Amino acid sequence: MKTQHGVLATDSGRREFLKATGLASLVGALGGPIPFAGNLPRGVLPEALAQAADAGLLKGKRGLRVLGDRPENAETPVTLLDDEITPNDRHFVRNNGIMPERAWRQDAAGWTLTIDGEVKQTLALSLADLKNRFEPVSAALVIECGGNGRAGFNPPAKGNQWTLGAVGCSQYRGVRLRDVLLAAGLKDSAVYIGYYGEDLHLSRDPSKEAISRGVPIAKAMDEHTLLAWEMNGEPLPAYHGFPLRLICPGWPGSTGGKWLKRITVRDRVHDGAKMTGGSYRVPRYPVAPGTSVPDEDMEIIEEMPVKSIITRPGTGIETSIGSVLPLRGHAWSGHGDVRAMHVSNDFGATWVAAELSAPKNKYAWQRWTAGLRFPKKGYYEVWARATDARGVMQPMLVPGWNPKGYLNNAMQRIAVKVV
Ligand SMILES: Nc1nc2c(c(=O)[nH]1)N[C@H]1C(S)=C(S)[C@@H](COP(=O)(O)O)O[C@H]1N2
Ligand SMILES: [Mo]
Question: Which of 22, 25, 303, 349 has its CA 20 to 30 A from that of 294?
């Protein structure tokens, strides 16, 4: 298959081509620099990058915005996140290393999950063991990357420049991590878990992990923390961790190890790859933008903050004076349920309450809908903001600058032209 610009898009041809050129020149080859790219509102899909994704750079994905190819990272344009349950082909991808071959083969033969460390009995469980020995559970769960929104920070933070789309809410099936840990029997010394996946470090050095994070034992034992083998009724897709992934809902996506092979129970805070230094850690106190923060003043991110997205309409929509513009999206919070959702069309001077549905289950996102009328012709913005169960709201502007650009939950704004 050839794209309109003549780039070979067969699987092997494309892979060779990418190896030789990298993503930046692929974008070039797909049509030169994007005209007026600098003027595009954030979240609008640059067409060449969309083509790169749809040409199969990300197998089984449609319409994602590719941020990098080594490792592969892609976010979902916000208007493609409108579904109640995010379909597999629309879920963002965040990889830190090289995906295991097994995931592409969808072959769990010989695979086991090892549970070891501060346990009374080390376990090695096959997928069949997990399915037969423990009670199956199913839940719709938000997974959001801790760096979602990084593109909003100034001075800029290095790393993937996620805008709004490093989030999804799919339906997972699996077992409670709690039940598996209880089967192994926790020792009194258990304080933290650390996961290990089958993906390779980018250097391909087998003694290094691409990422190995974890959570305190209380979060590991929470009934909502899952070991999942199914996503939206299918075996976990290659990108999302086949054959098994961890999900610690409400916490940074990075706590949810993909392609799991081992969970080790620790007698101290886990110190695997990306647990220390600047990774997934933020200053303990507010710092001035651009500050370099001493390591001992950094702490591990736990709960993710309250947040929402506007999935309809897309930014730049045109509507007419006096008619009601329907708006909708989703709201979620690492703290639990979202209590209220508001929208404004006058730059936050006044707010209108939106309809907000209950979540399908704890840690699923909640549908909100609203309608706004515009009194005069001209340029408007719609702002949307969620409030969590404690009364904590999304900030109007980008919150607390931090060295790696985590936890930007500023409210989303879309442009509306009224004629
Ligand atoms: N083994 C492994 N697990 C991983 C990662 C990874 O690179 N390797 N990335 C983490 C990060 S940073 C995020 S945000 C989520 C992303 O999950 P997704 O790609 O299914 O959206 O997976 C987490 N689990
Ligand atoms: Mo992440």
Answer: 303
